[in-house]
Each structure stands twice: as C-alpha cells, then as structure tokens.
C-alpha cells in the first residue's frame, strides 16, 4: 500500500514537472564563445604582442594594473600552440612553438629577477620570441579573422 | 505547443529506443548465457554476493561487458533469481553502462584522459560504499530460486538460449525498458528546446544538483555519455556535474528504479538510492576543483544536453509535418549498428510472441530440456561434450572480445576517417554557403563525430596521439562550433560565408596533418 502511494506520488511529481516545463519559455538563440579582448587574432599578432610586452623593454609609463598585465601576457604565451595550429606550420615547427610556449611560460611565472639573472632571462626571452618571428615566414598568410568576428569587434 | 511537445516525446523515445537496441540485444544474450549455460550457482560464483569482494567483482565484470542502463535490466533480473544480493546486483547494474571499449577509447583521447580514469575509480568508490553499506544494513536480500533444469548439449543448448532471449524480450523486462524510454520522453516534455544550454557551469554550485535531477530520468548510451563529457570538458562546464551525468545519466533510468521498487519495496529502494545520492554528490563536489581543467576558456553555454530537451519549437513547426520530420530525422541519424540491433529486437519480439501463443498447445522448453536418446552408439573420441559453464564463460569472453574488435570497425584508419569527414564537411559547408541552414546544422554534428573518430582511430592503431594532431583536430572542432553558432544565431550570410572559409582552411590543415605527418609520438 505504501509502495503504491509512493509510486503515485512520483508519477504526480513527474507530471507536474512536465506541465511546468511546457510553460517555460525557450532561451535566447544567440550563442557564442567568450573570447577575451586581449586574445590575438592570429599567430603573427601573438608574436607581435610578445615583442611589445617584453618585460625588459620599458614601455614608458607604469601599467595601471600590473597584475592584470602579467596575466594577459601569460595568456598570450599559453595561446601560442593553438594559434600556431591555425597556420600552415608543419609539425616540426609547431612542436618548436609548443616548446617555446613552455619556455616562455617558465620565464613568465618565475617572476621578476634581479641583476645578472634578470639580464639572462631577458635575453633568453628575446631569443625565443626572435625564433618565433623567424617561423612566421613558414606560417602562411595571416588570414585569421575568426576572433574578431566572435568578439564582435 | 502541445502538438510540438507530444511529437517531440515520440521522437525522443524512438531515438533512445534505437540507440538502446544493440545493447538490449547484448543484454538479452548475456541473460541467456547466465540462465542456460552458467546456471544459478555458477552465476553466484562469478559475481559473488553480499561481500566487499563481490562488489569489486561485479564492478569489474560490468566494466568489461558492453551494456547500457536499459540493456542491463534483463541481466539484473537474472542475477536476482540467481540468489545474488542487491548491493552486488547494483554494483554491476551501475558499472556496466558507464564504459565499454568504444567509449573508453573515446574518453582516453580527450584532452584530459586522467579525468576519465578518475571517473572510473569514482564509480568503483560509489558501488563499494553504497553497495557495502546497503548490504550491511539489509543482509537478507538474496532470494532462493530453484536451479533450472539443465539443457542437453548440442544444438538444443543454443536453441534454448534463443528461446530465453525471445521470451525475455516480451516479458516484464520489455515493460521495464519501456518505463526507461518513457522517462526520456517525459524529461524532454519538461524541458523546452535548448533550455539546458546555459546550465552546468563550473561557477554554479548547484550544477551537480541540477544534473542529478536531469540525469536520473535521462537515458544515455556509454558513447553518448562520453561524447557529452567531452563537450562538457571542452566548454569548461562543472566537472562534478559531468561525473553525475556519467553515473546517473548512463548508469540509471526509470525502468531500473521501478524494477527495484517492484522487487525490493520502497523502503529498501529509498535507502539504497539515498546512499548512492549521498556518495555521488559528495564525490562530485569533492572533484570539482581538483579535476577542473585550468587551460580551458569556459563558454557560457553547451549543446551537450540539447538531446534531453524538446526537439521541436511550437512557434516553428516543421514544414513537412511532424511525422514526416520524425521519419526524416530517424532515417538520417540511425547508425548501421542501431538499425541491426532494432532488426534483431524485432525478430526476437516476433519469436517471443509466437512462443507465447504456442504455449497453449506445446511448451518448447519441455522438448528442449529432454535429453536426446543417443542409443547404444559410443560417442566418438573427439566428440567432447563441453560443460555449460565453460561454454558460458567462453561466451562472455567472446562478447568482450567482439566489443574490442568492434572498436576497429567503429574507429577506422585515419585515411578512411578523413575521407568520411571530407564528405560530411562538403555537405555542411556547401549547405551553409547556399543558405540551407537546416541541412548544415544536420551535417555539422556528423563532422564533429568523424573528427573525434579520426583521433581515436589514430590512437587505437599507434597507441599515441601527438599534441600536434590533437591541436589540429581541436581547432577544426572549434571552427565548426563557431559556424554552428553563427547559423543558429541567424547571423548575416556574409559572416557565415567568412566562417565557412575559416572552417574549410582548418579542415585542410587537419587533413594534411594526418595524411602527410604520421600521428605518432611527440
């Protein structure tokens, strides 16, 4: 008897849910992935950004939010493999980009150094970014506009 | 509105029935093996009962045998009459639908294979904890049923198995499977089209709870659940909700719950279910942070659960009418193995109905169980009688082996996948270019499916998938999804055409990567 009551209760609950669902309004159709404003539209633009954001090069004025600046810089470094996959780079070159991304990440997360260490890290950074720039000649034309479309820019 | 919901329920039930058909046939085959060849005592020996080791044994067997939550219904009925305790039965019932070789391979080639391994161990923890505690509280759940008469060896033994399968296909199992399918239909009626697209986010602490409410009545094959997990990881959704989707979405359905209530009563069902909810929810909240992928940009939506919602919108009914649209979708979506499973099920149901009619005059089992009169002729030296349990064991191993071999057919060589993908891509992109958006939206998921099969096919044959190939496939998947969103959002045609060009380039690079650079080690 108790079992029967429980089954009836469950059926009633189910029907209530169904009726409630019928009256709900469907959601908005327009879906898109959020693309951060600082995500470069192509591999070439990412390399350019890494050159601009070189921490050893003084930009002239202090950034408003150094922590946010640092986070954006790290993001760009981590996006390198994905952006390189959208180019004509062959596997050996793409692997080099992935290695470069890991090396740059290491430099970025190790934080600001002092003295000789700082000089070594800066020259290493420039060397890696320089090597990335050399790869651009094999990456094909810079056609990627997808991110601009998505972010509505 | 009501018409759209009603026809939507019909479509969702047909889709679920077709997906389940091959698994239900496999489940019936396993039931027949246990019933006719292994017998009650050997089944008890294989699975164990009422002990911690039996929970592990059942979990392991469940993991090895292919199945889905509807296909396990006849098996759990057989396990019950074999005198096995509830905790052990549910350890099998819950683990069998979670993984099979096809879905496991799919999961292992996702970007975070360790998450899948963690989920597998999580499921072991669930069955050990909930099953162990339940068997401790309710130790007397084993029923005693008389051992069935042994079937004579030879062709009769095989015929007897076919008879078990046929009878089971028109028995209470069929009703319970129907309950499970009905749950899927009712769930879709309760959820407006696309209403789950903005749910299950990592930030929302209620995501695992929301998923629990949806996943219990939902039905998902192991492969569907794994594809949904992949989509959830890709969109940065809640990991806890993904775990619940696997455990309850793939492992549970209304039919199983009704079976439990029917044979063990509401009190025991509620106790077992409460225990399981507690363990699963506890685990899902526990793994949310440690397993959440850090390198993902979370999307504010997901398409993974669209399949649980209403398929039709009341304000835009199909031009050809609902029945014709349902027939069109079923024709387009049904895969060969699903069609074969449905045909086999139809044959079994016909045979089962015929046998039920025949029972009025002649019960076939009487003839099957009668030993053949061999006369005085001595059996040949090589005419060895293989004992039923040995044959049953070989049968179970053969099912496991067949499911592994099936992986090579389901995930073909990369070159073949590229060919298939190329055809699907041509359909999708040319439809998008020419404004045939419905056609494009049909072909885009097929492209996504072949993109995944390409990666798994390569992994299966080389044991590895390089980051380079993985990334090329990911970029193509992302571009396809962007295109899907533009089409769904009714964006201007020139933007859609621009995205078609970007997607086409991504495909070209993917095809070159797999054709020209072997997908071996990094």
List SSEs of chain A in N-to-C order.
HHHHHH
Count of helical stretches of chain B: 20
List the uncertain runs of chain B. Answer: none
Oligomer: heterodimer
Features:
heterodimer, A: about 150 residues, mainly alpha, 6 helices, about 65% helix, about 0% strand, globular, disordered C terminus, B: about 525 residues, about 70% helix
3D structure, described in words:
- The complex is a heterodimer of chains A (153) and B (522).
- Chain A is mainly α and 153 residues long.
- Helices cover 63% and strands 0% of the residues of chain A.
- The C terminus of chain A is likely disordered.
- With 522 residues, chain B is mainly alpha-helical.
- Chain B is globular, with a radius of gyration of 24 Å.
- The chains are: A mainly alpha (153), B mainly alpha (522).
- Chains A and B meet through helix 1, helix 3, helix 4 and helix 6 of A and helix 8, helix 12, helix 19 and helix 20 of B.
Task: Give a brief description.
Chain A has 153 residues and is mainly alpha-helical.
Break the fold down into its secondary structure elements and pairings.
The complex is a heterodimer of chains A (153) and B (522).
Chain A: H1 2-23, H2 43-52, H3 66-84, H4 91-109, H5 115-135, H6 146-150
Chain B: H1 2-47, H2 52-64, H3 72-81, H4 86-95, H5 101-108, H6 113-137, H7 155-169, H8 172-190, H9 207-215, H10 222-234, H11 239-250, H12 254-287, H13 322-333, H14 336-358, H15 364-369, H16 388-410, H17 414-433, H18 437-462, H19 467-488, H20 493-516
Helix pairs in contact in B: 1-3, 1-7, 1-8, 1-13, 1-14, 1-16, 2-4, 2-6, 3-4, 4-6, 5-10, 6-12, 7-14, 8-12, 9-11, 10-11, 11-12, 17-18, 17-20, 18-19, 19-20
